[in-house]
Amino acid sequence: VELHPYLPQDELIKYCKDHGILITAYSPLGSTDSPLLKDEVVSKIAEKNKVSPAQILISWGAKRGYSVIPKSVTASRIKSNFEVVDLSDEDFETLNKIVHSQKKQRLVDPYNFWGVDVFDEHN
Length: 123
What we know:
With 123 residues, this protein is mostly helical. 41% of the residues lie in helices and 5% in strands. It contains six helices and two strands, in the order αβααβααα. It has helices at 10-18, 40-49, 53-63, 75-81, 89-96, 110-114, and strands spanning 24-26, 67-69. The longest helix has 11 residues, at 53-63.
């Protein structure tokens, strides 16, 4: 499931938890040149915690209670992806509010790649 602060999918997560369905988040960092990695809120929290924005996004997903599988081919990034940060409640809630300041945004949309409207969002 695509999950990140721009597309938190709270209803789906609640449904899955209520029914014992385990979730795996793909593309928790977005896609190539993702705006998430440059997001001002994410960057400030990363700076405060002395880690990368990617580590903050992975930590946010982990704190929400699902497995997170970021893609990387660089050894140093793969290593840093394992270094989850224990986000403070304040930072966690700040990240949860990002979606409320903008429209939900799918960053990996099959429609953009193959012209297939899998999510019925392009009518």
